[in-house]
Amino acid sequence: MKLGASSRSGMTVRAGLLSCICDGLSGPPPANDNVGPGPGTFALTAGFAFAVLGQTAASAALPLAGAMLAPRPELITWPFAALMLGAVLASFPASFLRDAFGRRAGFALGASLGMAGGLLLAMGLVQHQFAFACIGGLWLGMAQGFAFFYRHEAAAASAKPGAAAAGVLAGGLLAALAGPALMAGAEQLLAPFFLVGAALLAALAHTAALAVAVRLAPDPVSAAPSGAAAPLRALAAPTLAAAAVWFSMTLLMGGAPLKLVDCGIGEGAIFGFIALHVFAMYAPAVPLIWLGARISPRLLAAGGLALSTLALWIAMASTRPEALALALILSGAGWSAATIGATAWLRESGAQGRLGLALHDGALFLAALGGAQLAMVL
Length: 378
Description:
By secondary structure, the chain is an all-alpha fold. The chain has one domain: Up-down Bundle (Growth Hormone, Chain: A). It has helices spanning 40-69, 78-101, 103-127, 130-147, 150-156, 161-169, 171-190, 196-213, 236-262, 267-282, 285-291, 297-317, 321-349, 354-373. Helix 1 (40-69) packs across helix 9 (236-262), helix 1 runs antiparallel to helix 10 (267-282) and helix 7 (171-190) runs antiparallel to helix 10 (267-282).
């Protein structure tokens, strides 16, 4: 029987289906299949929110972990760069595992990697092992790569992809609001082990994301008008616009903590600056839930690129903490607008196949990796 065909039992044959497909077989569906009651947008938003909480803790801890553990100055950015590298490596599995095993298994795998990455990072900090910090950052990045496909899942099921993607990204706002208090509490609980609390918080957040992921089913049915798939060149414009913004964002996110330390800001207070940046990344998504269907995706992406350019100029021109805070806010807002705009732009242009989405997200995370690796120039 060919893959994709339906048997008499009503089950669709596909790679990864762990069940007998003999004609006439009846019984409950396999645990990893995409059947069951629909999860609604709330489940996608909740899963993404927990993943963002893990990302926030990891993004605050990894640059400082590199400064603490790196055996040579030129290796300081490696743990944070490993976060972006992991996201790049996860882009294609995140896209293709959805069809092979269903999105429940795909998102659960990503959350499991985040759990392991947070625990390994904590172990590296306790034992002063730079390699553990890098590998932990890599696994946390892979979890991030899987989690960002939540926005594609929402956009795929909606006739208003921009508003749907904004609804998922808005979940990150909850993580930004709760993140500083949770990180401060975790650090106080694990004192005097600096950053270990943040690493364990990242692992716990991905544990919660796993609890949400195992409840996801079924795969969405698109409400958008169907049509012929666009050629891959339709990816170029939205991908280039978003990639430039992601490059700028990680350049600031990786370099700002080290620059703030040089300005005399206490290490604990740096969590607040990063949380402010994360808040700015996801707060604009709330009004875009309603405005995303009324604003051109191209205009959103262009506005995000302009804000990110301004933020990078401010950060490179000043060493004052308030200027860096403003740059982090503008960069976060630009990232939100560009990411939502580019996601809707992809759906609008017809570049929505699994290869197209994998290439798009892979390019974004590759640009982010470049920004993280160059963070020392800030």
